GmrSD restriction endonucleases C-terminal domain-containing protein
Amino acid sequence: MKFTILAGLLSAVATVHAIPVALPTPPGIPSASTAQTQLSSLTVKAYADPGGYSRDLFPHWSTQSGTCNVREYVLKRDGTNVVVNSACTATSGSWKSPYDGATWTAASDVDIDHMVPLKNAWVSGASSWTTSKREQFANDISSPQLWAVTDNVNQAKGDKSPDAWKPPLSSFYCTYARSWVQVKYKWALTVTSAEKSALTSMLNTC
């Protein structure tokens, strides 16, 4: 009887400490059918690097509000119970990375990923944009372009498109593809045929 009671107490304690951390849901993620329609309308163009790319050509982490820049804004938006100091730096909280399902309690373990990487945008149309437009793209919080994810997973992704890299969690393929397509559609960027094929396959998992 004592063992049964003890087991029940331990179970209750485990339940209390297993606080669920929600997956982030940036704005503007379209339905699968809308994403299919948007993908069909994108211009398909062979990969061609015009050269001259530099991350500095996409001014990022602009001031969003008060002392908060866009990185800090996304950390707060995508985290759970995030506490920030007067400089808007996250001092505590939890972040669940949708790419791999890992949960982190230190903001230093989290990167803010550009769903469509800056280099990919450069080669698919952004090289002809003004610096001002590239800054808007790099700090776009009105679409599913910015995500708080595990830092080394973001580094593994680099500037790869979905035909070369997919999230470790296959259960996230649907949301990933819908978000990628929405960003490309919103910013009128091109896709390669391999990229379109990969996105179509990922959307078929929805």
